[in-house]
Design goal:
Helices cover 38% and strands 20% of the residues. With 418 residues, it is α/β, with parallel strands linked by helices. A hairpin with a 2-residue loop joins strand 16 and strand 17. Helix 3 packs parallel to helix 4, helix 6 (182-195) packs across helix 7 (211-226) and helix 12 crosses helix 13 (361-369).
Length: 418
């Protein structure tokens, strides 16, 4: 992690350019003095002019709703990044040394709350850009507001429509994604079961009211069609459902030899428990929500078995282990992939501000569009595609869960995506 922070502390930008709870009133913080000694072992950042300032970064995540497990982890990661950078002396942008201030709001899994939070962050808190949640419905609902406010929204939302419009034929200028899209996620996942495990008959369980999951499943269905893989059943549920035994029984009776379970954390946990209760012991894949702490939320270790899912990075890298140690020390919680994504969102945001040489919203938006070469936890070479506002070439790593235990499998990319 030292090389990540060192990169952000450099006066000369090391990137290349081609052109946590809900708060009614966020606390304002005074600019902290730079520490005498950097926690990274590097010299503290200091501008030649001696000027100082505060770079305000907004964050919108689900902290109390159905996706709170993911939102809290993301905010924890962002808070850790802010702490690391500030303790190392801040970051030089243009001729000024800035400390960071993260201002998080709770969208409560509600798009309207997300829009209200976005408006408050810009109009009241005067943030330079906003970090977004993994909730694609919040991302989709925020497009018009980002255009009105002219603020970059760097999100984890994976539905490509957030960036490319309803028909994927336009570009929303202020919307950006910092991880693989939902469509890519679905293809990574289903192709592993088909090509590596030899599954031939796929059953689908899809949260029809969850934009990310629906997009993910549709891409997986298209992969099956294009590769002559038999889809024996497609069943639907809603995020709030607590009983999916009927749908699972239908899939089981149709002869599925694997399950693509496109659901967010709560219904994913419920359906996995019920799948085990039915004795429906086939491999399952689907959502990124299989990431920790999913296994610990299942009824017992045995139900969290025979599961394969894509992860943004391996838990075994030194960067992730260092993040995990910090997370446990600071919050008493293990780091998850969402913690890593939250951390990386701050790194990318700060790199964009450095590239812009400014904390002005429009300048950061312009720099974010063409940023490349950012060293993060999930990749040592984060690149933004200016034509899609989605990352280029972000690696994925396949993980497995057996008896409640996570295990790393292998790096994976099907020819279908090459």
């Amino acid at each position: 992690m030292k090389k990540v922070i060192a990169m952000l502390l450099a006066v000369t930008l090391c990137v290349s350019l081609t052109a946590c709870s809900a708060k009614e009133e966020p606390a304002k913080t005074e600019t902290p003095a730079a520490p005498e000694e950097s926690s990274t072992g590097e010299e503290p950042a200091q501008s030649a002019s001696g000027k100082t300032g505060v770079l305000k970064i907004g964050a919108i995540h689900d902290l109390t709703g159905n996706g709170s497990v993911l939102g809290i982890a993301s905010v924890n990661g962002s808070e850790l990044a802010v702490k690391d950078i500030n303790e190392a002396g801040g970051v030089v942008i243009g001729d000024t040394t800035y400390t960071l201030e993260l201002i998080p709001y709770d969208c409560k899994s509600d798009p309207n709350e997300g829009i209200s939070s976005l408006q408050r962050l810009v109009q009241v808190d005067d943030v330079s850009l906003v970090l977004g949640p993994s909730l694609s419905n919040v991302g989709l609902a925020s497009v018009d507001t980002t255009n009105e406010l002219k603020v970059a929204f760097l999100g984890q939302f994976g539905d490509p429509r957030c960036m490319q419009g309803e028909n994927l034929d336009s570009l929303n200028p202020y919307m950006f994604l910092m991880q693989p899209s939902a469509a890519q996620s679905g293809i990574f996942s289903i192709s592993y079961l088909v090509e590596k495990l030899g599954c031939k008959k796929v059953g689908f369980l899809i949260a029809q009211d969850h934009a990310y999951c629906a997009t993910q499943a549709n891409a997986a269905l298209q992969y099956c069609e294009d590769n002559n893989v038999e889809v024996v059943a497609v069943e639907y549920n809603n995020q709030a459902d607590l009983d999916m035994k009927t749908q699972l029984t239908n899939i089981q009776n149709a002869g599925a030899d694997c399950l693509f379970n496109a659901n967010p954390t709560q219904p994913l946990t419920v359906s996995t428990n019920q799948k085990s209760q039915l004795g429906f012991d086939v491999p399952q894949t689907g959502s990124l929500d299989y990431s920790s702490p999913f296994a610990s939320l299942c009824a017992d270790a045995a139900s969290a078995s025979n599961i394969y899912f894509m992860s943004n990075c391996s838990y075994d890298t030194e960067e992730f282990k260092e993040l995990d140690a910090k997370c446990q020390a600071e919050f008493g919680q293990e780091a998850t992939i969402k913690t890593a994504l939250g951390y990386d969102q701050v790194l990318i945001a700060v790199a964009a501000a450095q590239a812009a040489g400014s904390v002005e919203r429009e300048a950061i938006r312009d720099a974010l569009e063409t940023i490349s070469g950012v060293d993060t936890i999930i990749t040592d070479n984060f690149n933004m595609d200016p034509e899609t506002h989605m990352p280029l070439g972000v690696e994925i790593f396949m993980m497995g869960i057996e008896n409640g235990e996570y295990k790393g499998l292998e790096a994976w990319c099907p020819d279908y995506l090459k």
